[in-house]
Amino acid sequence: MRDDGYGRMMSEAVELLKPKLFFNGHMTDGCYTYHEFPFGTRYLRVDSSQNFKCYGILDSETGEITVYEDGEVTFHLAIGERRWTHESS
Questions:
Q1: pLDDT of 73 higher than 90
Q2: DSSP state, 63?
Q3: How far apart are CA 74 and CA 64, in angstroms?
Q4: What residues contact 22, with CB distance under 8 A and at least 6 apart?
Q5: Is 26 helix (H, G, I), strand (E, B) or coil?
Q6: Taking the complete model, does pTM exceed 0.70, yes or no?
């Protein structure tokens, strides 16, 4: 997240709520951004514009999130019962 008023406000909210995953779409700085907070929350932002032609899919049955850029897998996050793994190309 950016270090501005909005970014600080969202960081505070995420730290207060401590969700397992904060999945966001926005039009800035590349196809996606992935960050793991010290308190356990994972943050994934996927660009929602046509500049990068990116999209993210959450499979609710398997708990997997895949980010595609122009039809190719560029990031994958598997949410296990107690562990998370991620791969990026």
A1: yes
A2: T
A3: 14
A4: 14, 41, 42, 43, 44
A5: strand
A6: yes
